[in-house]
Amino acid sequence: xxxxxxxxxxxxxxxxxxxxxxxxxxxxxxxxxxxxxxxxxxxxxxxxxxxxxxxxxxxxxxxxxxxxxxxxxxxxxxxxxxxxxxxxxxxxxxxxxxxxxxxxxxxxxxxxxxxxxxxxxxxxxxxxxxxxxxxxxxxxxxxxxxxxxxxxxxxxxxxxxxxxxxxxxxxxxxxxxxxxxxxxxxxxxxxxxxxxxxxxxxxxxxxxxxxxxxxxxxxxxxxxxxxxxxxxxxxxxxxxxxxxxxxxxxxxxxxxxxxxxxxxxxxxxxxxxxxxxxxxxxxxxxxxxxxxxxxxxxxxxxxxxxxxxxxxxxxxxxxxxxxxxxxxxxxxxxxxxxxxxxxxxxxxxxxxxxxxxxxxxxxx
Length: 364
Ligand SMILES: NC(=O)c1ccc[n+]([C@@H]2O[C@H](COP(=O)([O-])OP(=O)(O)OC[C@H]3O[C@@H](n4cnc5c(N)ncnc54)[C@H](O)[C@@H]3O)[C@@H](O)[C@H]2O)c1
Description:
- It is a single chain.
- The protein is an alpha/beta fold.
- The chain is about 30% helix and about 25% strand.
- It is built from 10 helices and 15 strands.
- It has helices spanning about 10-25, 40-50, 60, 80-90, 105-120, 135-145, 180, 185-200, 310-320, 330-350, and strands spanning about 1-5, 30-35, 55, 70-75, 95, 120-125, 150-160, 205-215, 230-240, 245-255, 260-270, 270-275, 285-290, 295-300, 355.
- The strands form 2 sheets. Strands 14-13-12-11-7-10-9-8-15 form a 9-stranded mixed β-sheet, covered by helices on one side. Strands 3-2-1-4-5-6 form a 6-stranded parallel β-sheet, with helices on both faces.
- A hairpin with an 8-residue loop joins strand 12 (about 270-275) and strand 13.
- The radius of gyration is 21 Å and the shape is globular.
- Bound molecules: nicotinamide-adenine-dinucleotide (NAD).
- Nicotinamide-adenine-dinucleotide binds near residues 9 and 38.
């Protein structure tokens, strides 16, 4: 298979490793080309990966005739995603775009429509934490009726200092500039959070009832542009494809003066389940009532995660392109999850509710 990576920055290196790993595991012959407008970045990339063919112009890299299984990975800052994705689609290639998919809902829809029209797949790297054994266990308990009717999900991931562009990857200051990043911690980590919830609970429509975005200050704040949020909260009312509507209380921070906190909890009328979908261990806690008292059973998920989460977008998307079963979020599903994120910003800005429906992203 032929892979074309646009952007030779931090995440592009992980994509090359993922492609190499996937190719060996699947006995597939793969070639990798990479393009970056920054020649110093490109030079250092080629030192690390001498087998990768390097280009300073993405257009020149994509000029050769396309083959149906070609994949272009857009691994640049968000303000370039739409233009580069459209360029790759126009060149007749499937596109796996880094998260966040786009800068706003209009851009995301334009990208999906172009992919649909060209008969290629568009996927988003928000799928990094999908298909994991721990989420499957939670789903199994829910479908077995262990928690009864779900009425509330609490999804809280609060870190005190983990701002991309400051504490993490300080060389990439674009993370702090809304005109380049599209948003702050919500666009950085929210794609994973919402994709996880979407996979687990099979959303059909989401109303963002209210939301807020704040930038707590520190004495290490850079003097360059810094106009994104580092702490976000939202109250979502969700209709799933099956079952009753439920609430999602969502909160994420990469900077707060409050306490660090990680809680993912699903509360139903008969029981509640808590688990850590990221790197927090392999236990699922189920609490139900026994003789009027809460009783907790701890399930240890023995099945190992088969893939490095950072490799999953390439693995899942390559499988989808080859017509194999895959948890990949592509086409309107990728746009739907993105639109919920964009809807949270819209609601925070307008102070009003914003409704996002799955049918709203059906491509004509
Ligand atoms: N760094 C991470 O850990 C990480 C993890 C997951 C996802 N991502 C996502 O990946 C994307 C890239 O992030 P990064 O951390 O690799 O950024 P980075 O700053 O390390 O690299 C971005 C690269 O894109 C290049 N570039 C910009 N415009 C270009 C264009 N028009 N054509 C070709 N190259 C261009 C830049 O020169 C730069 O080398 C972002 O959407 C980010 O959210 C990053």
